[in-house]
Amino acid sequence: MNWNELKESIPDDGFAERYEVYRRARPTVTMVVLRTVTDPTLFRSTDSERAETQEFGGIIHTQVNGEKFVSKERLTGLNLCRELDEGENIITKEYTYNEPINSLPKSQTADLLTYGLAGTVSGATFSQKSHVIEGYTYSLEPYDLMNRETHNALYESGTMRNEKGGQSEALFNLVKVQPGTHFVHFITLEAGTKEMLLYLIHNILNTGRYGARETRTGRNLKNEIVGLITSAGDSNLSCGELINDHLTVAEAEISREDIQTVVSEYIKKHKRSDWQMFYASDFKPNDGDDFPEWLSNVIKVGSRREEESSAVLTDALVILRKQGLDTVNKKNSKKGKDEGDGDVN
Question: Do 221 and 38 form a contact (C-beta atoms < 8 A)?
Answer without folding.
Answer: yes
